[in-house]
Amino acid sequence: MRVQLFIPCFVDQLYPSTAFNMVKVLEKAGCEVVYNTNQTCCGQPAFNAGFWEDAAAVAEKFISDFKSTDYVVGPSASCVGFVRNYYPKLLENGAQHHQGKELSNRIFEFTEFLIDILQIDSFGAKLPGLATYHDSCAALRECKIKEGPRKLLQNVEGLELVEMNDVETCCGFGGTFSVKFEGISTGMVDQKIQNAVATGASLIVSTDLSCLMQMGGYIKQQNLAIKTMHIADVLASGW
Description:
By secondary structure, this protein is an alpha/beta fold.
């Protein structure tokens, strides 16, 4: 199966190793992974800031960059959810409205692609330790992802998964929200990290590096022992 790789801006710039690990897992699953180097942003930052016309222009480029019949897979439920749920509306009166709807049907977050399309939940990963999983708002609410990532983590040899309290509560990132409402954002991430630490886990795992960046920054600031890790990095461990 041929797969078009979608790597969001911040993953490309800050967490490229996660992108490479995603490729490793997809190739182990038998996929032919293709990466279009012309791809840029999906347009979500501009959209969230209220610049809908600018976001639409970026969306049109995105559609052109991923113009094929292949599945498009990305390591971010936030960006995938934006394309899937908002492109049809954003381009409602544009020439690429139909293409936007078509793309929204074949773009998938990494874990939902593994579980729902490939129907594979074990990759021979090994990572000893105790971990807790964070439901990102985008994964849970935009992409309806809940059990898939947990099933994948439960099949990682040596990894024990424990649930934190208020697991579906936001980490406080929310893109520009964390900048515009720093005090509220800090209070939210503090609560999230307290709940994670209370489980005794040494690792917080999620589908979204934006959430992990938010939580990781707070953990570093507070000098806590717990760490963060994207699920693609977990699934590529111990080979």
